[in-house]
Amino acid sequence: MRWWRGGAPDRGIADLELLALDLETTGLEPARHEIVSVGMVPVSGLTIELSGAQQWAVRPTGADGVGQSATVHGITDDAVAEAHPLQEVLPQVLTALHGRVLLAHHASIEVGFLTRASRAADLPVPDLTVVDTVRLQRRVLRLGRTRGHLGEEDLALAAAREHLGLPRYRSHEALTDALACAELYLAQVAVLGEDLTLRQLLR
Amino acid sequence: MSADVTEVADFLASRAPFRELPRALLQTLVRQTAIRYVRRGTRILSVGETNEVMFVLRSGAVDITDGDGGLVERSEPGTCFGMSTLVERAPSRYDFTAIEDSLLLVVPAETFHATCERDEGFGAYFTSAHTARLRRAVALLHTTDRGGAVLRTSVGDLVRRAPVTAAPGDSIRAAAQLMAAERVSSVLVQQDGRLVGIVTDRDLRTRVLAEGRDPEGPVAEVMTPEPATARIDALAFEALMEMVERKIHHLPVLDRAGGVVGLISGTDLMRLEHNNPVYLVADIEAASDVAALASLGTRIPVIVDQLVAEDATAQDIGRVVTSLGDAIERRLLVLAETELGPPPVPYCWVVLGSQARHEQGLASDQDNALVIADEMTREHDHYFAALAQRVSAGLVECGYPLCPGDVMATNPRWRASVATWRAHFDRWLDTPEPQAVLNGSIFFDMRPLHGAVDLVEDLRADVLARTRHADLFLAYLARHAVGRRPPIGFFRGLVLEREGRHRDRLDLKAGGVGAVVELARVHALLGGLPEVNSHARIDAAARAGSISAGLAAELIDALEFVAYLRMRHQGHAVRSGREPDNFVDPATLTDFERRHLRDAFRIIRAAQQALLQRLPLENLS
To answer: What interface predicted TM-score (ipTM) does this complex get?
Structure first.
């Protein structure tokens, strides 16, 4: 039997403890690329708690430095020099995740990098329960129609937020993206029905 | 680690009053903030509710309306709201409703107050924003002629007792003892008949205790000298503005000559403003004895009067009056239980008749009974007799006269075990006698009020399952209902009372409200319908096909109209110090009302005839 982090599967979302997490990385592949910043903000039930918001810049270990990805997230090698080594940041992230459901947009990135980093640091790989706002957005968009293709462009964080009437944010800063994801989640579950259970979110 | 939540901080920093805050203070505020999302149509906060947060609209739109639905402000992103309860420390004066899906920043009260304290401009902004909103709300009241009590009442009307005063040379301790003895939170300091200062609970805390001052020192050392005052003829509204602007909670009231006549508090004003049944219920629940309840009971007619003026429906007024009556009765039960100890066996206190139907008016007397678990013994009855005695006497003090037919729990016959109640119902249903059925009909309008509700629910379910087959019982009930002739004569004019005290008056109860109540009851029992409220019974009867949908709708309108006239009539009576009754002088009605009244009575007659056709009553002896 699976042990569920952040609550039993039949727990209503009003009682769910989540942690919205965003990693900025030098690329999309955990095996080759590195984490350059981490942003997170807890969501307790249907409330985002800014008191728990955190962000770290992470110092890459590779010889390549930030490389071309700087054009995306705006983190330069200079800024990275002020940053913390991943082995300092990672335990804090894992602690914050304890007892919470991981909430992310395209969560496979966060899960992949966290898993890889935990292994590399010889920390236990977390057994995560994951709610992905991309999947929820698919359901939101399908509410009004029965068929039709949903493209990547419909599911991007900014597009999803716009669709639900949320304000426009400058993206690709880890904490801002984590917050953007958390707000998106509140809007999505408001549309999908606040009497949902965790199990229904995972479906 | 850095966690400047830039999107939120930048958003706030672009708007007053956050724009003027030092960045560090703003960041502290942001870090204590939460975010919530509400769908379009969500009521965020209602009039009369208190809240412990300020909202800042992040995206979407929220309408701010007064209690009557008048739009005070349509807020855009960046608007702060909900802080009136923080500024005034009083329940909300407004309804806040999301009219678009909205994202809200939620700033806790402690953060709000801490920021006000650390930045004077921030606090001042909210005080003036709040008074500006208040002014708009009041202007709205003026333009729509819905002027609330706060506009019509002068400060002098609010003063409830003579002022508690001290002399400047009295010791602080003596002043504190006086406040404790008189149960007041402030004392006015007078010299030669002139007001020179005020000392409040807060002064004793901050200027005496916190500073370690000698309580034997003179009160003049810790008073606020030359305090703000209100003139006796000022409007309550003006006093309210003064208190909000100065952030004070007490205002001494002076007569024209400058003499002190009393003191008003923020609470007095809030109470007044709505005469809101919600506050009254809260007060009732907190009343510590019968005398306190009795004094609260006197406010019910004022509320009815106001609801009539606000054009509330009779159905709604009946609900409000009933829920206040319920609250008083429940409180009396709790007080009696506190005095007598816990009951020896479970029981349920039930209300009957109009109160059970949520149709209580101002002339209603008390109708109640006790349904007690079958384990009860003869010994236990002492407890319940004492309970009934206390509650019934308390109700009399609160303005609910004893039932002339003795349908009260003080009557041993109506203070009985479930089994005995079953026997009563069996007798009414199985071997009915016309008069007994009539007397017993009130027990078919029964609602559990307090205690072991399931005792009554089971009993009622069993009874209702049987009524539809009790032909003779139904026939007697129906015959009586149909016999309540509406007062329309041969020429379709109105029939007035021909003799007695109410000569030349029109009886709105017998052939009006009462007739509809009885019709509705027959239909409910005929169909075994659980509804008790007449309006609900007629609706349910129409759904069950017992009465045509068209006639049902007309009958509900007729009931509403006659009940409304009756409620208005009773409200006037109480206001002018007369006993409320059911007899209205047709000369006080407008042509329009008379015409409608005739129509209403005709509809009631039609409904009676329709029932006659359904039930063959001719064979009854």
So the answer is: 0.86
